[in-house]
Amino acid sequence: MDKKLYLIGNFKMNMNMASIKPYLEDLKKVADNTNNAVGICVPYVYLPYVSETLKDSKALYGVQNMHFKDSGAYTGEVSADMLLDFATKLVVIGHSERREYYNETDEAVNLKVKKCLEKGLTPIVCFGEKLEEREAGTYKELIERQVSAALEGIEEESIKDIIFAYEPVWAIGTGKTATSDEAEDAIYYAKSIISAKYGKQIKSIMLYGGSLKPSNANELLSKPSIDGGLIGGACLKMEDFESIIAN
Question: What is the pLDDT of residue 1?
């Protein structure tokens, strides 16, 4: 395929220093030899090492969350300015696990997106439905709510600085995967929401996440509306991640 893809690995709460060291050396080689945009989002504690190792590479890197305040009494949180100390580029915002386990609201997602844009960080804004919403046929209402809420108060010129990731909750870590048609339909719909809000001329970057792996990558990533993948489990083994990138 001839379109540029964004292929971002999300480590979640995985890896350790012993496994990250050889991984990053391999990642540099892969990222420097592809026309696609390749990156990883790591646990905060590895950011100093990742930033030093990847500083002369084409590989992008970032983290999986941040606070929307610049500073204050927010024990356990990390600010945008702290991330910028390590030349961080990417921040995953509103992942379904953050929404479900840590009660992250649509309002908080919006505030974090605004803070990312203010500080020059690229938010990867996640959205997606649970199984009951998919089965009930209400998933498009959920997608519209989450995408619209994330973009509340965001100006048209900032859309190019945001990456979106459709992650159907029922397909994350379950081994289930949305069919390529289901993924295309949802992402096309999300793009249409943005076009309706800002105008048809607006182009948005939309990734698919949800058990994306080497065996289904080509079919999913060849769909016209899908601009890449936010990759969980399959990114943890460089062999699998590299296979997806090679597709």
Answer: 47
Question: What total number of domains does the chain contain?
Answer: 1
CA distances from 230 to 162, 175, 217, 241 (A): 14, 15, 11, 11
Cα distance between residue 20 and residue 26, in whole Å: 10
Contact 198, 218 (CB under 8 A): no
Sign of the dihedral through C-alpha 195, 94, 23, 117: positive
Q: What is the CATH number of the domain that holds 41?
A: 3.20.20.70
Angle at 195 between CA 191 and CA 199, to 5 degrees: 160
Catalytic residue list: 95, 167
Q: 176 or 17: which carries more pLDDT confidence?
A: 17
Evaluate whether 66 touches 117 at the Cβ level (below 8 Å): no
pLDDT at 8: 98
